[in-house]
Amino acid sequence: MKILGLIPARGGSKGIPGKNIKLLGGKPLLEYTVEAAKASKLLSRVILSSDDKEIIAVAKQLNLEVAFIRPSDLAQDNTPSIEVVKQALKFFEENGEKFDAVCLLQVTTPFRKNELIDSAIGKFIKGNFDSLISVREVPAEYNPHWVFEEKEGSLRISTGENEIISRRQELPKAYHRDGAIYITRTSVILQNNSLYGKNLGLIDTTGSPYVNIDEPADWKSAEELLKK
């Protein structure tokens, strides 16, 4: 299967200015994802999608392919990831190259390893999934079976059940996206305009070092993880 590794990194971060190339542990944040992606054995090609000259310059220093410069209208705060992916696929199709799937690797989750990427791709292929995402287990206190919604002044279980599950041991496992890996078939991306197919697989990263960097507090957490 031919899979495009796509690393999106736009300029103009507001929460942490210059986040994508800011030094973390002595190297640009971007470099962590580049190293993992380039070490993958199952990604057919790995590229950067960016609008920013400084980010592009750093990427080239890291020997990351920059096949195109992302249009500025696809580098806004509210630009959906799906549009960035579609633009990359369109670029390659116009240049005579097609991919069976795209593996989206966000710079803000720097601690995923190449082994995780390849394990995810292997599971994606073996399970014949439409898409696959990396997830982490939700702590029991946030499990949807123990979460309530207010309706007309009263609390209702968010799952719609009438009786609450009383014992933690009886709770079914629940997961949240961790943002580290998204793999989606090209057909799903182009036909459904989505990164999520009906047959959605998962790879569980619970227990592995993790941070999703969005705010300064997240950056501090990343630095603490590196110290450990």
Provide a concise account of the structure shown.
Helices cover 29% and strands 22% of the residues. The chain has 6 helices and 10 strands, in the order E-E-E-H-E-H-H-E-H-E-E-E-E-H-E-H.
Structure description:
This protein is of the alpha/beta class and 228 residues long. The protein folds into two domains: 3-136 and 175-227, Spore Coat Polysaccharide Biosynthesis Protein SpsA, Chain A (Alpha-Beta Complex); 139-173, no CATH class. Helices cover 29% and strands 22% of the residues. It is built from six helices and ten strands; from the N terminus they run E-E-E-H-E-H-H-E-H-E-E-E-E-H-E-H. The strands form three sheets. It has a six-stranded mixed sheet with strand order 4-1-5-9-6-10, with helices on both faces. The protein has a two-stranded antiparallel ribbon with strand order 2-3. Strand 7 (148-151) and strand 8 form a beta hairpin. The longest helix has 14 residues, at 81-94. The relative contact order is 0.18.
